[in-house]
Amino acid sequence: MTKKLKIGVQISGQGSNLQALIDACQRPDFPAEIVLVISNVAGAGGLARAERAGIAIRTFPHQDYPTRQAFEAALDAAHNEAGVELICNAGFMRILSPWLVQRWQGRMINIHPSLLPAFPGLHTHQRVLDAGVRFTGCTVHFVETGVDEGAIIVQAAVPVLAGDDATILAARVLGYEHQAYPLAVRLLASGAVQYQAGKAVWVKKRPTPTTGLLNPC
Ligand code: GRF
Fold first, then answer.
1. Which atom of ligand 1 is nearest to the CA of 11?
2. What is the CATH number of the domain that holds 16?
């Protein structure tokens, strides 16, 4: 079998996207493996998911470090020690400094629950509802120094429905996140998509949708 890309996943919470990546990586034909899961929150639900899957975990409570630089240096060292080739942020609730982003540029990705560049930042679903847009979604993108900025690898469009509240909408979007994140990792690990000069470039063509959607239809 060809060599699998070694990924490190950074989480802060329940880790349902981590679980989607764990499940994908358990398929024999998936071109990546998780070698390390890092959390900045002790006891984060995702850590138990990693342990159940037999994946190494490390916890770095950010408040225990004298500076942001010291915290981030610990993350960086842990990934390097584990031989990580791609960092996947999955609900990792820390803003990362430019030095760390630059060190991992093109080798660090994130998932955000909106159709970026619309609705970056926190409280995404409520802002989507307040704006009255008919579609939202999720985006897997390379990490750059601006929050939720960076070249887009995969997006899923998800309809906003009458009667949605932020909780209902978040759950609908999350279901698509669990498809989008493994797909993005597969595209990168297989070499189908590459980071080139700040862009996500298609190297091998993949099927793409041919139709748009109306909402309401
Ligand atoms: C997801 O909605 C992700 O897009 C956002 O935080 C949430 C994390 O969920 N950044 P989980 O911990 O993966 O379940």
1. 12
2. 3.40.50.170
Query: Is 129 within a domain?
Result: yes
**112 is a catalytic site residue:** yes
The rounded distance, in Å, linking the Cα atoms of 115 and 175 is 15
What distance in angstroms lies between residue 90's CA and the mean position of ligand 1's atoms? Answer: 6
- The answer to whether 157 touches 115, Cβ cutoff 8 Å, is yes
Contacts of 51 (CB under 8 A, 6+ apart): 57
Q: Strands, E, within 2-105: which ranges?
A: 5-11, 32-39, 57-59, 86-89
Whether 137 is in the pocket of ligand 1, judged by its Cβ within 6 Å, is: no
Please give the number of the atom of ligand 1 that sits closest to the Cα of 111: 4
Distance 2 CA to ligand 1 centre (A): 30
Tokens found for residue 125: 């679903």
CA distances for 90 relative to 47, 98, 202, angstroms: 12, 19, 23
Tally of domains within the chain: 1
Nearest to 87 by CA among 179, 205, 201, 195: 195
**Per the omega criterion (within 30 degrees of 0), is the bond before 216 cis?**
yes
Q: pTM above the 0.90 mark?
A: yes
Q: Give the N- to C-terminal CA distance of the chain in Å, as an integer.
A: 46
Structural domain contains residue 97: yes
DSSP state of 79: H
- Chain segment 116-150, per-residue pLDDT in tens: 999 999 999 999 999 999 999 999 999 999 999 99
